[in-house]
Structure prediction request, 924 residues.
Amino acid sequence: MITDTATLMDTEVLMAGFGGQGTLLAGKVLAQASMEEGREVSWLPSYGPEMRGGTANVIVCIASKPIGSPLIEHPRGLIAMNLPSLEKFAPKVKPGGVIVVNQSLIDKDPRRDDCVVISVPSRELAQQAGSARAANFVMLGAYVGATGAVSVEAVEHAIAAEFAGDKARFIASSVAAFRAGVEAVCPRS
Amino acid sequence: MSRIQIDSIRCKGCGRCITACPKDLIAFSQELNDRGYTYVDFTGHQEDCSGCTLCAVVCPDQGIEVWNFKDKQTFVNTAGLTENMTHYCPGCTHGVVHRLTAEVLEELGLLDRAVGIAPVGCSVLAYEYFNIDMFEAAHGRAPAVATGAKRARPELIVFTYQGDGDLASIGGNEILHAANRGEKFTVIFVNNAIYGMTGGQMAPTTMPQQKTTTSPLGRDVETTGHPLRVSELLATLRTPAFIARGSAHDGKHSLQLKKLIRRAFEYQRDNTCFSFVEVLSTCPTNWGLSPDESDAWVESTMMPYYPLGIFKQPEAPAVAATGASHDH
Amino acid sequence: MSKVLMKGNEALGEAAIRAGCVHFFGYPITPQTEVPEYLVKRLPEVGGAFVQAESEVAAIHMVYGAAGVGIKCMTSSSSPGISLMAEGMSYLAACELPCVIVNIMRAGPGLGGILPSQSDYFQATRGHGHGDYQLIVLAPASVQEAVDLMTLAFDLAEKYRNPVMVCADGMIGQMMEPVEFPGEGRGEPFKENDWELTGRKGRARRIVNSLFLAPEELFQHNIHLKEKYGRVHRDEMRWELCGGDEPYDLLLVAFGTMARICKTAIDEVRRDGLRVALFRPITLNPFPLAACRAAMDAMHAKGQVLTVEMNMGQMVQDVRFAAEGSRDVDFYGTAGGIVPSPDQVAAEIRERLAGVRATTPIRLWSGAGLCCEAQGDGVPCAGTDGTCDTCGRAMPAPAAQPAPTGA
Ligand SMILES: Cc1ncc(C[n+]2csc(CCOP(=O)(O)OP(=O)(O)O)c2C)c(N)n1
Ligand code: SF4
Ligand code: SF4
Ligand SMILES: [Mg+2]
Prediction:
């Protein structure tokens, strides 16, 4: 895994799913972790009436210099939590990009031979980690494991910071879910 | 032996019909529909269904139709609504209030000359759902728009459909003066004790101690006043004809509410002045409660403060707000 | 102080407190509601107060009241709400009361939509209420700049005794970026002044008023205001020129969010050797006319000027005014809450520098361009007779239309 931030590439990832699947939160954790590693970040959510029972997307940009446009039409990464998101955004990913597919809800191939496609049974792994609701962190783990966009430790730290205080009971299962996602793509030797 | 038909595509899985069915014949299926909702199925024995229609009455999403034991359809989705699926959250009773209003317009034969005015609030898209001519008005100004429309074309049946932020806060002036002038239109006032559309801020109708995003510690009546009882306030005016409050939180109350809405439109049809129906409605999303809990909260918390009943009607002289006649 | 990751709207709220703001009056409206939602929690911690007004009309007049008694205060809203504040802004400016108004613009007209837009440029810089008055208008392009300009806004409001508007859009309000705040805790209150109403004890009584029944007096008052605005225009213009150190063949002019997108687009086309610079006004009023003109004049005679806006062509009028007919100023824009991507702006730059667009000065980017992209090849639709040459689908909006020429 790459942890030397100086060698990290600029990247951007779109996380998309139903409202309530925790895409915005997972995106925030990624942005927070990258910021703490000294990188420039932006976190741009979709907002609008469609959020009511609809979809929730966020684009996180990570770069080594100040970010120009936080809006990226063709991101280098996609984390698709549900089928509509995969269908809508998979065609937009840059060739050579990484697409993480939530296998628990999607049984369709994005048909992007020019990208790295990773399918993750997020719900099952999250359940094993202690909370089915932490599927978002499994997906984030798979993305981080596959790309090394940020260090595993920084994300774990950011999860702990996010849930500090009266939500502390979520930390253990969220971190475990995140690790399960990392290990799903780069198993411990 | 009656039967019901559940539209699994329309169903948002709010579970209100499950609670409403007196015989426990409806249950959640194991499947998600295309929009990601766990829809419900009829799971009981067919012989047990009495055809009471309560499941259809409480469904906010036109998801259920009913046939009686002679296979005659006894609950038909109203022609007063379009087939569009609403954007309302699962279990939100805006959908019920839409349906009751549309049913009344249909039953009174008014669909062809009705003009509705949508507010700014979650029901801003009401023009997508009412199958009649519709305006969309600026936030709070619907009563002014209605005044213009009704004065200019008195033959129209004009109504506004407004939330509590829209009507009681920013539009407080418009509603007060439209009522006081005795404008001959009808108001459907949906009181859900919150600003739904903008994500759960305090409304003038928010209950004491109720937590909202702009009263994070609970509404403090010392600095924000007590919840505004709009029906009682308007009932102090001499001019308005009909002012009543109902609730959409369960089947029985929804049917009573429909009678109030019907009377309000009958008064307008008969050229009697200003008619106003306040509805206690739910906002499960911003209350942070399940649909069932929300319905229960209306009964336990809102109804004691906002008593149901008729506060003013043409036949009887005005009753003092405190002496409101209760419907039950 | 270390950096924190924060939403633009919340950062604006915190920045206000650091600038010494103690009172907030406002009414919920998307996409700015996080400003009040943040301040309702934060203000009591610093001894301030938050009031949810019954409307924007009331909110701005609450500001008038609080500013009139000498308290640092603010309101925030978004486009339709700002329209309702028009009356109060006129009164605040007429009575020379300092305050800050945040506008997180959304798409209009009418109820419009809630997505980002810059269609209130005219409203912010030309009009809102009635009468001969001006607001100072600041346009941040990032969350950090929103914070910095908030501090500046309170300073300018106090210095000139004038309302200052911080004009951003839904994207800046909703996005999170790392920010650093100035100072610790709540900033300073207004300095001692001779206008606040505090009770007349020990001094002659004061009046906050904008009624002048004698026309000569009102004329004098207008001259006084005009003289003040003149000082603002002389001393307070702010702008940024990116890529101006090397020669360029095209000058983009854009503000706020749109300027960031242009920067990325410029980075992209520079890789192909195209020479493009960006002029970004930070003060929309006063608009930095002379600096904008200088950035144009730095180009050779054939150099092009293109304003890029999320509206149907508003700031372009000021840029044409700056050009004073010395060269054509073209416009490229979107509306409806559609934010053009850097790729689209880059494509426009390429076509202009290739001479393809020379005869179509106004080009609207239409959402129809998405249809090819939906097929996955990422190419915007283009074609004649209303259909796309690539995918054959209808293109609802005309791709190009002739524009009035001249300044
Ligand atoms: C002038 C103006 N101010 C504010 C808003 C933002 N706004 C939209 S809906 C709404 C509140 C709606 O609440 P309510 O009327 O109670 O309706 P609900 O969503 O609860 O049904 C507000 C403040 C607006 N659109 N226009
Ligand atoms: S009430 Fe309607 S929407 Fe709710 S679960 Fe029953 S059928 Fe579905
Ligand atoms: S936010 Fe509340 S009022 Fe609006 S649709 Fe959802 S439940 Fe209904
Ligand atoms: Mg409401």
About this structure: Residues B 121, 163-165, 192, 194-196, 203 surround magnesium ion (ligand 4) (CB under 6 Å).
